[in-house]
Amino acid sequence: MSKVILFGIGRGADVAFRFLKRDSEHEVCGFAADGKYLDRDSFHDLPVVAFENIERRFPPEQYKLLILMGYQKMNGLRAEKYLSAKEKGYGFISYVNSHFYRAEDLNVGENCFIMDNQSISLDVKIGNNVVMWSSNHIGDLSTIGDHSWLASHVTVAADVDVQPYCFLGIGATVGNKLTLGQRTFIGANALVASSTTENSVHVSTSQAIDLDSSAFMRVMMAKGKL
Predict the structure, then answer these.
(1) Distance between CA atoms of residues 172 and 180, nearest Å
(2) Do the beta carbons of residue 68 and residue 43 sit within 8 Å?
(3) What would the DSSP string read from start to end of 132-200?
(4) Which of 82, 102, 130, 214 is at a distance of 20 to 30 A from 71, taking alpha carbons?
């Protein structure tokens, strides 16, 4: 068990606090936020301090951090704060929800936040500062790189290399034996069937195909796709 300070006083910190309180042995002792955003001195009845001066109240020899921020700047904002805290000498916890199937003990880095109902197969590696929202599947031999974000219901097949700073939207699907280049953005419900390049964007579309559904089925059957 560790004494933990959560970064932020918004939704991310609120979610982290509530999950840690109900599903971990860690003790949340306070919150920290950038001074320019401080508009209160307590949150969840615990003290809030300026991140710039966090060492004075919560020294790194006694406390660890968890930084749950969003995917702004392709996860760059969260990475910046994580690296800044490391420079201050802080260690980090990772939160892994207790209520999901895992084939073996997870190989997971620091400052990760992994929520409920995951299905994580054998020989999966999860890097540092990774966020995985609810109900994802990660196939065997896959790697989730540092500072990545997986929204809910993402499917990553086997032997996939998700490189750092990637974003995978709700319901995205990634095929077998692919590499997602750094800072790849995959939109909701998109299917990625080949490796991607760095900084690339892959989105699905809801625009209707210019065929009626019966004709579309006939074409697909003629091509042996159904």
Answers:
(1) 13
(2) no
(3) E-SS-EE-TT-EE-TT-EE-TT-EE-TT-EE-TT-EE-TT-EE-TT-EE-TT-EE-TT-EE-S---TT-
(4) 102
Q: What is d(CA 208, CA 212) in angstroms, rounded to the nearest whole number?
A: 9
220 lies in some domain: no
In contact, 102 and 118? CB cutoff 8 Å: yes
CA distance 202 to 223: 25
Three-class SS state of 126: strand
The verdict on residue 212 lying in a domain is no
Q: Look at residues 87, 105, 136 and tell me which one is the last residue of a structural domain.
A: 87
pTM: 0.90
User: What length does the chain have?
Assistant: 226
| Residue 103 sits in the same domain as residue 82 | no
Distance CA 109, CA 27 (A): 20
What is the extent of the structural domain holding 148?
95-205
Structure tokens at 203: 């989105």
pLDDT tens, residue order, the chain (226 aa): 899 999 999 999 999 999 999 999 999 999 999 999 999 999 999 999 999 999 999 999 999 999 999 999 999 999 999 999 999 999 999 999 998 877 788 999 999 999 999 999 999 999 999 999 999 999 999 999 999 999 999 999 999 999 999 999 999 999 999 999 999 999 999 999 999 999 999 988 666 667 675 776 677 678 775 5
Task: Report residue 210 as tokens.
Answer: 């210019």
Q: What are the residues facing 161 on neighbouring strands?
A: 143, 179
Rounded to 10 degrees, what is the CA torsion of 64, 68, 72, 78?
Answer: 10
